[in-house]
Design a protein that fits this description.
Elements: H1 8-15, E1 19-25, E2 32-39, E3 47-55, E4 60-62, E5 68-70, H2 71-74, E6 80-85, H3 92-105, H4 110-115, E7 117-122, H5 130-138, E8 145-147, H6 151-159, E9 165-170, E10 176-180, E11 184-187, E12 193-198, H7 204-215
Parallel strand pairs: 6-7, 7-8
Antiparallel strand pairs: 1-2, 1-10, 3-12, 4-5, 6-11, 9-10, 11-12
Helix pairs in contact: 3-7
Length: 220
């Protein structure tokens, strides 16, 4: 897997414009038709190694149990993968989370599986209630953490790590369109900073290959 070092400042500007526009869905709760269009420059690479790592987003949100979840405090010193998406996404989000679930199950050491924190932060909090998030993530991996809350807070947190998300909007034909970045950010347990960003082309094998190093705080 080829990984290209870049300046985080430049990547942040690029990532903010790297969005997946998703309208859904017959696969969602509102019964609309489903369509997904992705125009993602960074998605052509499996992973990008940052010269200047991102600090973890300062987010205090609500988890799938309806309880307060301080992202920085609860994941401090733990290898953490963070993804911003939504449960009604027709393809990119479920595929990404499925790939992460497969990669996590491939970890040989149960302690590694326990240490790894996979956090899904909704970009569509109006529809993604704690109950909805919990049910959806259980189908992927019950160990995954789902977070929802105020959209403006989530958007600010996403932007702090170069991920752009926009409010969901209803089109004239009734489709609900949600726009969000498709990056998975990997945070090291040593300094709680993201040293690697994965694009939507990253496969389960890509994640499985890199996770043992990420868990140890190494750059894959």
């Amino acid at each position: 897997m080829r990984k290209t070092p870049v300046l985080a400042v430049a990547l942040a500007a690029t990532a903010a414009l790297t969005l997946s526009a998703c309208s859904g869905g017959s696969g969602g709760s509102d019964g609309s038709s489903v369509a997904d269009v992705s125009s993602n420059a960074t998605a052509q690479k499996a992973a990008t190694v940052l010269d200047r790592p991102f600090a973890k987003p300062d987010l205090v949100l609500t988890d799938t149990k309806g309880e307060k979840f301080d992202l920085i405090e609860r994941t401090k010193g733990k290898p953490t993968l963070i993804y911003f998406g939504y449960t009604n996404c027709p393809d990119v989000c479920p595929l990404t989370m499925s790939n992460l679930a497969i990669a996590r199950k491939k970890l040989a050491d149960p302690k590694d599986r326990e240490q790894l924190q996979v956090v899904f932060v909704t970009s569509d909090p109006e529809r993604d209630t704690p109950e909805r998030l919990g049910a959806w993530l259980t189908g992927q991996d019950p160990a995954f953490i789902g977070l929802t809350g105020d959209f403006a807070t989530i958007q600010a947190g996403a932007r702090s790590v170069g991920v752009g998300i926009e409010p969901s909007k209803k089109e004239a034909n009734g489709d609900i369109v949600s726009t969000h970045g498709a990056q998975v950010l990997a945070f090291s347990p040593k300094d709680d900073k993201a040293h690697v960003i994965y694009g939507e082309k990253a496969t389960a094998d890509d994640f499985a290959k890199d996770l043992p190093k990420i868990i140890k705080g190494e750059t894959p």
